[in-house]
Write the structure tokens for this entry.
Amino acid sequence: MSLTRLLVTNLRNLTSVDLQPSADVNLIFGKNGSGKTSILESIHVLSLGRSFRSHKIKALINEHQPEMTVFGRIKEGADDIPVGVSRSRTDGSSFKVRGQAVGSLAELAGVLPLQVINADAFLLLEGSPKVRRQFLDWLVFHVEPGFFATWKVAQRCLKQRNTILRRGRIEGSELKVWDRELILATDRMTQMRVNAFSVFSDVFRQLVDEFVIADGLTLGLYRGWEKNKNYTEVLADTLERDVRLGFTGAGVHRCDIRIRIKGHAAAEVLSRGQQKLLVCAMKITQGVVFAQLTGRRCVYLVDDLPAELDTEHRQLLVDWLDRLATQVFITGVEKQALVQPWQGKPGREIKLFHVEHGEILK
């Protein structure tokens, strides 16, 4: 899978950009504020309808324009897939695949799977459980066709259940209706997550030794409640507390990946450099597992690689990206710092793009 054409209009300072990327390696360099990261943002918009920097759509649109558009062509096997996204300050949004409007952003996301490595990736360690839950669910979404529908059912049930709990006057039969559906969705979701996490953990253990992060590193999956109970028991045992608090305290919405060093939270033990390596190892693992389970390749966006890693570990990350044989887009200020790790890798087409003031220089 690769992005073969990218046309961007009025996204931040990119007033009109037409890019024909390499299917292999794309190195984007230029001064800070030149528009390098905005190119990566535009690819993310094409995949998910939004930026990886902010969920605020108006911030993406050039301040002097009413809307922005991103168009791309995605090649997968013999298939050439046109994808277009348009977002307006006032008139809403348009998402199209093969010229047809898509019903949801989930449908859009399935066309161009992405992994992003940037400064915000540290939230995998330092952020809330929601960040790690979304990280896991990215993989589950792409390898389990029924996951998104099941997730929506669980969210609807939780919303309805919480509404009843907040009323304080509980009708037993009314609550049981939503509990029954929530239990079924929870069991399905949890099994999907457990299956994907099991494969992820196996691959991660192989990678982590090469990244040499720290002794005693473990990953564990917290389902959202005590592992020695089924969810039916959990809802019964916590009903009194849930009524008192007005919301459902245990469930799939509390799922988390526990990342520990000898029993301690990794973010509290590891140095900043070690954290960088751990995050990179987790992101690479996602790509490896995704390829194993689907036979497809995800695209990697790496923002400001030289600033995130020293020379040795920058080379290690590049070596792994090379082994994945996937399309990558990497930004940086200095051209040579981007090019050097890719030297001596035959068979990989490397394209360089110099960005200044929102334009690609010829």
Remarks:
- The chain has 13 helices and 15 strands.
- The chain has two domains: 1-113+297-362, 121-295.
- The chain has a mean pLDDT of 90.
